[in-house]
From TrEMBL:
One example GO MF annotation: chloride channel activity
GO cellular component: membrane
Keywords: Ion transport, Membrane, Transmembrane, Transmembrane helix, Transport
Organism: Lojkania enalia
Main location: membrane
Subcellular location: Membrane
Compositionally skewed regions (Low complexity) per UniProt: 165-177
Entry protein name: UPF0187-domain-containing protein
Region annotated Disordered, chain positions: 165-184
Length: 362
């Protein structure tokens, strides 16, 4: 087997990296790199340096400035870049921890639901309605993960929004139809699995301001109430399950805060201007000492500084599709697969077809 073939392992097969690197990271200029977003400013500063050197050597005589100006500016540039990158990585790390909190809550709730859902008497079985209710709510738990992911990516109206905003004569069918994002573009890929997890007939109300994750947590809490009435959960257990839902909603709220609260525009404007000022002053400070060597020196400095700033831009909103974003698709897929295995084994046990994970659901 080739050493570069991806070898999946379970669990966490989709969220962790198993493919060996073909090239050292120092030689990588495409996947995961930020070169594409900094090439234009680096090129422009290099061309500006060529102009400065040309003027210094052939036109205006010496146009150099005292080199002592550079340390003063470099301190300001360094402090601003450290602040920007530190703030952006904190947003990335907080978002990842919140996703872990949500996944943990979903796991805990699914575990409690499947273990506690059982017949009332010794040896009795669940009714068909109770089995369908439990299976539906475990699927809803997985659907919450997808709903959170899509909401953080501004992919709304999956499933279709409520019909309240449509005139009666123009209301669309309530059957499954292609969903749309905030730009009106059809979203047809990677949504079928998500839609299949939602209860039949569920209608979203995102067009009226109700987020689908919150709507789905209401279904979960309603199931907890029904389980308490059926005698599946005692009071403290039902209370702890409600705490898990509260933790899930709280973590989602923190992720929404990251998504909807960008770095203040005043900071971004000033940082861009300081970077531009520093890289424009630098050629004048080194042209007398380095001549044409100033061009590659300025290019390297601009590459370094704009690269650091570009990393901060990428990490600022960590919920998208970029290589450097949180691997939400893989993490959620791992959780879905994990819970689907538990649900299949629980269903087999409830139907009397097996012992269910070696008697785990006894």
């Amino acid at each position: 087997m080739s050493p570069h073939v991806r070898r999946p392992t379970y669990p966490l097969a989709h969220a962790t990296r198993h493919k060996p690197r073909r090239l050292p990271l120092v030689l990588r200029f495409a996947k995961g790199a930020i070169h594409s977003i900094i090439v234009i400013p680096v090129l422009l500063h290099s061309l500006f340096t060529v102009l400065v050197v040309y003027l210094d050597r052939y036109v205006a005589g010496s146009v150099g400035l005292p080199a002592t100006i550079i340390p003063s500016l470099s301190i300001v540039v360094g402090l601003m870049l450290v602040f920007r990158n530190g703030t952006s990585y904190d947003r990335f790390w907080t978002g990842r921890n919140c996703l872990t909190t949500i996944g943990t809550s979903v796991r805990n709730l699914a575990r409690g639901f499947l273990v506690s859902a059982r017949g009332k008497g010794e040896g009795s079985k669940l009714t068909e309605e109770e089995k369908q209710d439990t299976e539906k709510i475990v699927r809803v738990l997985v659907a919450i993960l997808y709903a959170i992911k899509h909401n953080l990516r501004a992919e709304f109206n999956i499933p279709p929004a409520s019909l309240a905003s449509y005139p009666p004569s123009s209301r669309p069918s309530t059957s499954r139809r292609p969903s749309f994002d905030g730009e009106g573009n059809g979203i047809h890929t990677a949504k079928a699995e998500y839609i299949s997890l939602l209860p039949d007939g569920l209608m979203g109300y995102e067009d009226q301001g109700l987020s689908l994750p919150l709507q789905l947590t209401i279904l979960v809490e309603s199931y907890i109430r029904r389980g308490f009435e059926r005698g599946w959960f005692h009071g403290p257990q039902a209370s702890q399950m409600t705490v898990q839902i509260n933790s899930l909603v709280d973590a989602y709220g923190k992720m929404e805060t990251i998504r909807t609260t960008p770095i203040p525009v005043a900071h971004m404007i000033h940082q861009k201007q300081v970077l531009l000022l520093f890289n424009c002053v630098l050629p004048f400070a080194i042209v007398d000492d380095y001549g044409w060597w100033s061009v590659p020196i300025v290019a390297i400095v601009a590459f370094t500084l704009y690269g650091i700033e570009g990393i901060g831009v990428q990490l600022e909103d960590p919920f998208g599709y970029d290589k450097n974003d949180i691997k939400m698709d893989g993490i959620i897929e791992d959780t879905r697969q994990e819970l689907m295995v538990l649900l299949d084994e629980w269903r087999a046990k409830a139907d009397g077809r097996s012992e269910g994970l070696g008697g785990m659901f006894d």
